[in-house]
Write a structure and sequence with these properties.
The chain is α+β, with helices and mostly antiparallel strands. The protein is 13% helix and 29% strand. The strands form three sheets. It has a four-stranded antiparallel β-sheet, with no helix packed on it. The N and C termini lie far apart (73 Å).
Length: 138
């Protein structure tokens, strides 16, 4: 009698467990949501780099854990389909409309060497000047 009761209980538990949703059925495993990121290096050779996830249209200051790269960035890699603006000041602020304190980098495969990058009025030397950046989709 006890063996039959135990067997019935075991089958009931097994049936309930197999009928319960596992939480995996609703997951879409065909797509990955990997955030684009910008790579910032303090040297042209690619040493001393940090990869920072991009939050579109959000200013990111190079302070706190990123303070090593504040005013000490020589190369930047921007992912394809993105454009990033580097600022000479924290808070993604400029010194005014005639100020040459921003660099605009469009995503590409190669890294940008900051000693000759597009600025507001033509190419500029932005080596060791970046203090903040913002990126968005092209």
């Amino acid at each position: 009698m006890f063996a039959t009761t135990r067997t019935l209980i075991a089958f009931a538990i097994l049936a309930t467990a197999s009928a319960a949703p596992s939480g995996l059925e609703d997951r879409d495993t065909t797509h990955t949501n990997v955030s684009p990121s910008i790579s910032i290096c303090s040297t042209i050779t690619g040493a001393s780099c940090v990869t920072v996830p991009i939050v579109s249209d959000t200013c990111k200051d190079l302070n706190g854990g990123l303070s090593f790269w504040n005013d000490d960035s020589s190369t930047v890699t921007v992912p394809g389909g993105m454009v990033c603006t580097l600022f000479d000041n924290f808070g993604c602020l400029t010194g005014g409309p005639n100020s040459d304190d921003v660099a605009v980098l469009i995503g590409r495969v190669q890294q940008w060497v900051l000693n000759n990058v597009p600025g507001r009025f033509g190419n500029i030397n932005f080596d060791n000047r970046a203090s903040s950046f913002t990126c968005s989709s092209v």
